Amino acid sequence: MKTRIVALDPGGTTGVAKAVIADEAISDIDQSMLGPFPHHAALWSLLHEAGEGVDRLIIVCESFEYRNRPRTGLDLISKEYIGVVNLFVATSELPSVKSIFQSASMGKIRAEKTEGSALVKRGNLKQLGLWTLGPNGERHMVDATGHLVYYLLTPRGVIAKEERLQLMERGGWK
User: Fold this and answer.
1) Alpha-carbon distance 158 to 24, whole Å?
2) Higher local confidence (pLDDT), 110 or 159
3) For the domain 2-171, what is the CATH superfamily, name and number?
C-alpha cells in the first residue's frame, strides 16, 4: 500500500511537508510553501495532486485555537485554509482520504533549551536534514515538517515500528 501524508501549517503563508510511505517505510519527504498571496485554489490543487497515484491520502493539519482574545501573530486566514482542507476531504472521490488535526504545540519547532514538552525540536530536524527555512527566513515549512514528523513518530499504524525507531535514532531522540 502506498500512502502520501501532507502536513500543513495553514496561514497567510502555508507551510507544506509531504511524505510518501510505501510498504510501511518512508520513501520521500518534500517541503514547500504556498503564499503569501491568497492560495485557496493552489491548496485545493496541491491536495488533489497529492492524492494521485496513492492508495491513501492523509492530511495532517495544524488546528486553529482561538482563545477569545487578540494576541500577537493571530492569523484568522488560517480558518479559511482549514476550510479548504475540510471541503476537500468531504468531497474527495479518492478511495481513502482523511484529515487529522494537531494542535500548534505538536508541530511548532522549539529551540533545544526551551521549556515544555515539544517532541520535535530544531536539533531533531537538523539531524534529519529537514531544517529548511523559507527565502526570507520564514518558519512555515519547518512547522509543517514538525507536524509531519510528530505524526510519523506517534504509533498510528502508518509506518512500521522498526521504521519509527530508525527515524527516532536518525533524529537524535533517545
Assistant:
1) 6
2) 159
3) Ribonuclease H-like superfamily/Ribonuclease H (3.30.420.10)
